[in-house]
Amino acid sequence: MNVDKSLVPELALLEKSEIFTHGHLPVAAAFCRRLGLVEAINTMVPSQMQTSPGLVVQAMVLDVLSGRTPLYRLEDFMAGQDVELLLGQSIASHAFNDTNLSRCLDALFDAGTSKIVTELGRRAVVAFGLDTSVASYDTTSTSVWGEYRACEGDAPPPGPVITYGHSKDALPHLKQFMTELLCVDRGVPIFGQTRNGNSSDKTSNNELLTRISSIMARHGLGAGAFVYAADSAMVTKSNLEAIGDVLFVSRLPATYGECARAIAAAVDIGQWVSIGALAENADASPSRPAAVYRCHETTVDLHGKTYRALVVHSSSHDARRQKKLDKALAQSAKVLQAAFKPFEKIYFCEEDAQEAARQAQSLSDRMHAVAAALRPVQVRKRGRPPKQGPAPTHTRYELTCSLKINQDEVDRVRALAGCFVLLSNVPIEGEQAMDSKQLLKTYKGQYGVESDFAFLKDPLVVNDLFLKTPARIEALGMVLILALLVWRLMERSMRVHVQNTQAALPGWDRKPTMKPTAFMMSTKIVSIQVALIAGRRFLLKNLATAQLAFLKAMGTGPAAFLDPSYRCQPIIPAKSDFSG
After folding, report:
1. What is the pLDDT of residues 329-347, one digit of tens each?
2. Is 180 helix (H, G, I), strand (E, B) or coil?
3. Cα separation of 302 and 286, whole Å?
4. Helix 98-111 and helix 113-128, axial crossing angle in degrees, nearest 10
5. Contact criterion met (CB below 8 Å) for 409 and 233
6. pTM to 2 decimals?
7. Residue 447: enclosing H or E segment and its boundaries?
8. Domain assignments of the chain as residue spans, ordered by start
9. CA–CA separation, 311 vs 297, rounded Å?
10. Contact assessment for residue 508 and residue 522, using Cβ atoms and an 8 Å cutoff
């Protein structure tokens, strides 16, 4: 075949060209650069490795965000990527082999994983203008399949103790470790670390409370300048003492008698303040309407001190308790119907019938009232009837029973079941005051932390072959938290952009949405292809309108796919009270 000699240079370039489909990873890399992730880790983690720990961590973070493939395949993953675009340097994929990864994880552990997370959290707050007025805390467990027998000895190896504990995954037969997160601005982690598998949430809260002032001080916040939000495990005598002057909001456990007393008083008084639905109910639909709230302010006394208590009634609170009530109502009807059945018959005298009616009515319980009705009936006398005239009869009394729901009592019980109590020391008046709605929204912001835990739980990752030591598990946990940090910053940027511009983004089925998610974004830009030819990058086709819209919402553009040094431009809220 004869080839035009003038085309030889072009053909040679084509032979050396590569085409990449990175999806959202170049955008994530742009966020890593804005955080200075590589520089921060290289500064904090001493290492003699040829490939710096910062570059290895960013590679692992991007691998996690690519779909969270097992990290022992990181070398294969990087072999299929434009490494220079994603990491800013052209590095051979062999540099990301298992040996180097293991050395990097060990170095990260030695340097202090929580210190690294805290520093990058501080950078995120500064760079992206995060709202630090509320710090939400929670823990979760992650189950593992390994035996980790070394953790059972008197001198366990460094790192979290992998052991049995209260499994939040309902897998009590597996050993586990715990992860704790402190998040701001609806789920962006600014602090996190792994803990022993048998750690108690009550103890974890106590230990964090002894440190939270120093953690928040890194963000220029002293006691009273932020609100600590946590679940009911926080409410213990020692924790309430440890919290000192820090403002907090938590849920009062039902084990406290003051909880039932406050709820009963609120229901009986009936003086509710309507709150309506909250913005957190992003998944509301006609088939699953958003919960509607109403509140009642009161106080409770715990351990010799008076606290603010907000009794909250939710239209959809604790569906299990409502179902339990429905079952109890049906069981009550079944039992009563069986109990009054023997009374339903014809009695010879009225006195006996009336006594039976009273006994049947006495069967009534708090949910049902038994109603008894007497009806006189004529019964023909025994013997031969007369030849003429009507047959002689006796008057007898027929007793029938029916059930009537005690609607007022059932409504009261249902209202009681739909209530919970928020405990707080946030004032109602003054500089740091919050009204009922603000306090409820602050507590409901916990959902951001809870949704983060699904991101962190990946057995495929934490059970890899080179993670047989607790120290490496802790280091991997740090990498996952950093990946979560980047993921949440990407999502938050889109939410802030939508709020600032009041312009919806194209969501599922091309329907506009004011609640874009990072996963939604990843499906929109997954098809972007880049050609690398002679060291230069080109988009194979113009980006679609939806793709450009999502990139703009994240403070990026097409350059993120072309420039290895590109950094995102932070999207700052137009208002300081952004509630995502």
Report:
1. 999 999 999 999 999 999 9
2. strand
3. 41
4. 80
5. no
6. 0.83
7. helix 447-456
8. 16-113+463-561, 321-381+391-412
9. 6
10. no
